[in-house]
Amino acid sequence: MTTAAESLRQIAAACGDALPLPPRGDEQVFVAPWQAQVFAMTIVLHERGVFTWPEWASALGRHVATGAPDGSDYYDCWAAALQDVLAEGGIASVDDVERTTQAWHDAAARTPHGRPITLEG
Amino acid sequence: MSTDADHGQHHDHPEFSELSPMDARVRALETLLTEKGLVDPAALDAVVERYETEVGPHNGAQVVARAWADPAYREWLLKDATAAIASLGHVGRQGEHMVAVENTPERHNMVVCTLCSCYPWPVLGLPPVWYKAPAYRSKAVIDPRGVLADFGVTLPDDTEIKVWDSTAEVRYLVIPRRPEGTEDLTVDELAALVTRDSMIGTGLARSPERVTP
Question: Is residue B8 a part of any domain in this protein?
Answer without folding.
Answer: no
